[in-house]
Amino acid sequence: MPEAVSTASHLMNNYGVRTVEMVRGEGVYLFDSNGKQYLDYVAGIAVCSLGHAHPAITKTISDQAATLIHCSNYYEIPQQKSLSSKLAALSGLDKAFFCNSGTEANEAAIKLARKYAASKGEEQRVEIVSLPNAFHGRTLGSLSITPKAAYQAGYQPLLPGAHTPGNLTDVPSAITEKTAACFVEIIQGEGGVRPVDEAMLRAIDARCKEVGALLVVDEVQTGVGRTGDFYAYSAIGITPDIVTMAKGLGAGVPIGAVLAREEVAAAWTPGSHGSTFGGNPLATSVANTVVDIVSAPSFLEHVRDTGRYLEEALRQIGTEVTGRGLMWGFTVDNAKEYVANALQKGVLLSAVGESRVRLVPSLILEKKHVDELVERLSR
């Protein structure tokens, strides 16, 4: 007789205790192992851009899985070439590198910025500047430019040369001839869904150009239509040298991307960087489908329109409502308690800080789902 499989968890405890087990998704809803339905305003943390079990994504995965899932970057992958062309056209940048996640994309961008400086003989240009309340990932390099003590605790020494000023107003002066790159988010998602002051973003852009540093825009959470524009920076009037992406690009299938100006991208020569799984046929096939759907003007207008409706609804629920498109945050007395209570009412939300609640639903959200949110939370 075969041994009985243990039901005890052998998972590490880095996520803490999880009380709900999700087993199925449909559109903007998730269902747990007891059959309970949840209105999903987390969307895999801004990942499930087209909701759950979207027919076009399901078909793409099925067709590609029956054809070729992986072959490595030893060979040309046609889906990569197609996706890179689409992203170049949408971003105005020239070259793309594909990886598997946002933290990998930001780690790669740090490497590319330093490699670019070195290729120009600027060996002193090694510093990486980031903004207060930023979040760029959990690998050692991206963690080094994520100035949150709780995340960094126990991992010192971090990346040398990483620098985050204490105040936003001090960022431009922190960018010097020793700066390889400054990383910015247009809206700081983990920082409480707080849009960064647009005048400050333009000042940072100008300062980077003045001293020869690169401007890296982290669009991991804000990209792929999340804010109502395909890229959030396009509405600000800044010109990044590098853009990082992930999350919504794969609608749930892991993929990340780094886009760069041709001159910057040229710093990477064969062997400079790589990824075993990055840009495989399955992930890039799905991303092509996502980009085709989300980049349509009518789709982006839907995001903006539904986002305006959601903003007004949230003003009935909390205070300090901030965000854009379908990326919003609001203030409550106790965010963790609020999220736990919402879970009991069948609404999935996330806490970002002690008093901030984040909503990043699927981009297929409709106004009736906003009405349902208000109704469920008012119970």
What would you say this structure looks like, in words?
35% of the residues lie in helices and 17% in strands. It is of the alpha/beta class. The protein has two domains: 114 residues, Aspartate Aminotransferase, domain 1, CATH 3.90.1150; 236 residues, 3-Layer(aba) Sandwich (Aspartate Aminotransferase, domain 2). Helix 2 runs antiparallel to helix 10. It is built from 13 helices and 17 strands. The strands form four sheets. It has a seven-stranded mixed β-sheet with strand order 4-12-11-10-7-5-6, with helices on both faces. Strands 1-2-3-15 form a four-stranded mixed β-sheet. A four-stranded antiparallel β-sheet has the order 13-14-17-16, with helices on one face.
Number of helices: 13
Strand order of the largest sheet: 4-12-11-10-7-5-6
Q: Indicate the structural class.
A: alpha/beta
Runs in which pLDDT lies below 50 for 5 or more consecutive residues are none
Helical proportion, percent range: 25-40%
For the report, how would you describe the main beta sheet? 7 strands, mixed
User: What is the mean pLDDT?
Assistant: 96
DSSP strand count: 17
By CATH's scheme, which homologous superfamily of the largest domain applies? Type I PLP-dependent aspartate aminotransferase-like (Major domain)
Terminal CA distance: 51 Å
Can you tell me the CATH class of the largest domain? Answer: Alpha Beta
Which term fits the overall shape?
globular
Under the CATH scheme, which architecture of the largest domain would be assigned? 3-Layer(aba) Sandwich
Order of helices and strands: EEEHHHEHEHHEHEEEHEEEHHHEEHEEEH
- Into how many domains do the coordinates divide? 2
Beta-strand content estimate = 15-25%
Radius of gyration, Cα only, in angstroms?
21 Å
Remind me, CATH topology of the largest domain? Aspartate Aminotransferase, domain 2
